[in-house]
Design a protein that fits this description.
By secondary structure, this protein is an all-alpha fold. Helices cover 62% and strands 0% of the residues. Helix 2 runs antiparallel to helix 3. The radius of gyration is 33 Å and the shape is flat. The chain starts with 5 loop residues before the first helix and ends with a helix.
């Protein structure tokens, strides 16, 4: 079970998120030093949970803020459609006409 769910993280303020992030990073460093020193941890899965929760917080921090529907409609302006130039395309097609390949003559055809 995650330490903090994504929904809970999104509901937090930016300051609160940063505070929790600092707390979790210090706890993770403490647990890692205990492991390196050769000590036993009560819950080894806690390291993994901390890493994932830290990643969630950092990901949510970097997400762009969602744009409201009304603001989105105001920003969008109809773009004029460009008409493709047909003249250039037809010229290219006529110059690229492939010549019909003649079948290769075999030795039997030469004898006839």
């Amino acid at each position: 079970m995650p330490i903090l769910r994504t929904k809970e993280i999104r509901e937090m303020t930016q300051e609160n998120r940063q505070k929790r992030l600092d707390e979790m990073q210090t706890e993770l460093m403490r647990l890692k030093t205990m492991v390196k020193a050769g000590g036993a941890i009560e819950n080894p899965a806690r390291v993994r949970e901390l890493r994932k929760t830290i990643a969630r917080i950092l990901t949510i921090d970097t997400e762009p803020t969602p744009v409201k529907k009304q603001e989105k409609k105001e920003k969008e302006k109809p773009k004029p459609k460009k008409k493709p130039e047909k003249e250039e395309k037809t010229k290219e097609k006529t110059t690229k006409k492939k010549e019909k390949k003649k079948p290769k003559e075999t030795s039997e055809d030469k004898e006839k």
